[in-house]
Amino acid sequence: MSNPVSDGYSPTELLVCTAARLMTDNTTAFIGTGIPMLAASLAQRMHAPNLVTIFEFGGTGAIFETLPMAVGGECTFHRAIAAAGICDVMEAAQRGFIEYGFIGGAQIDPYGNLNSTVIGEYYHPKVRLPGSGGGNDVGSFCWRTIAIMRHDRRRFLEKVDFVTTPGYLNGPGAREAAGLPPGTGPYRVVTNLAVLGYHLESKRMLLLATQPGVTVEQVIENTGFELAMADQVEENPPPSAEELYILREQVDKDRLYI
Amino acid sequence: MEVIQSGIGQLIQKPDLNAFREWNRQKPKALIDKRMTEAEAIDRFVYDGDYIGTELYGTVRCPMSLVNEVVRQKKKDLRVVGQGVFELDMLLAASLVKGMDITYVGLEVYGVSNVFRREVESGRLETCVEWSNAALAWRFKATAMGVPFVPMRSMLGTDTLKYSAAKVVECPFTGDPICLVPALILDVGLIHVHRADKFGNAQIDGISGFAAEMARACKRVIISAEEIVDTEVFRCHPDRTIIPYYLVDAVVYAPFASHPGEMCYIHVRDEEHIKQWVEASQEPATTQAYLDKYIYGVKNHREYLELVGWERLERLKAMAQGVDNEQPCI
Prior knowledge:
The complex is a heterodimer of chains A (258) and B (330). Chain A is of the alpha/beta class and 258 residues long. Chain A is built from 7 helices and 14 strands.
């Protein structure tokens, strides 16, 4: 938990504002619990009033007035277009209807493969994590997958312990060869230190922009693999006063998450 | 069809659709009053070693009064569909689960499930087989369709597939690799609904999760309901019946059965109580104390509700948004 001050912002607030800017109006987005929900709510109030949010248990097109604590909660279909079921949502994703998928994980590798199953060896794990849930489906079906992560060397690894959710697997062409729908895959990684993309040819992670006050060296230092660099690494603008005001006073006024 | 890859996970429940057809043939189709208590329903329809499923999810419309009774009656060596928050935590906390087809067991915003971690890391939970969320929903759907598998396009290329019991084949129509997931036939399904009649017809308000598919994939179904209504409610709105009576073996009247989870339009979830569990589940001793207080220490769901307190429950009810009547619904 953090205590945001009026002229500053917390790491969570930074992640939310950065992710929200990636949500475009009149598109469909698969939303998980936590930061993606806050970001979607902020985006709806800023630049994307017609962002169609989709939750895995059936809520489609909700308008957020309060924040859900669970992906099946009442808020996930409040004044929504439809309250259906998991098959309806997953089948829409499999048919190519969902543009963005927002997911997280405990570990990520240079190809954007995510682990949310085990730390350590599968049969004798150091830590048993929750498992795929909808993560694997979102990473398989959505046209553009955006991972939201905390950035450090224990999470950004050359090889993850378990590939729960497919990124570019082991490189160019691997998704298509495995039978995953063509044209899909990881698009961005949003962290407390940077915004990253993927190299068009090598499909390896690429530094696009640093978060305010963060140096390229700090990003490299906190990444456990060799990071490609965009021709020009930008610096992300900090959350604006308007974004922070809406986030604190409207999106999460009960401070459930921020 | 050429099999390109086979998951190394165990196929916990074989998809014997012919036996399932025979089973369904002998299920009574007469309109019989199936109302009973949780104790009677669990005693009559859940057995040691059963493969069970709970619907919906964790803290939303979760069948807690039925799950708590399974724990109270110590039904053991269970195999379960690993999709859960609070309800699976209770079964795991009581060490009743031996095998699991898992997609997600965790506490959502509160992170990993402590009891799940302890059961897996100690080896008491002997078998875990990995699946994606869609895979499990479509495995129910395959059974509901009465076919042994369905093809799907996720899981491919990952360790989730490697540690599942799915197969990758070359599609006979397109030539592309495609993932096949086997039909999942459950011994018992536990489903909490907004309203049911005494025969087992059921309606759900809000999202339906995987209730329709799971109810059709079970040999036995136990329904708990916030409200028992006259069959006329169903005859007037047959389009709203999500579970028809002939799938159902028992109907239990159980208001607030999802507590501490939520029941959409009726009551919100009990955040304080959930936090109490998150805290208690950290250590085995405090976990046991929680079970002693809220499950073993009460005789039935009514006593549980009294322990939680009616005043508190009414407060959760008052906080629910309800159906939005301010907007014109034409």
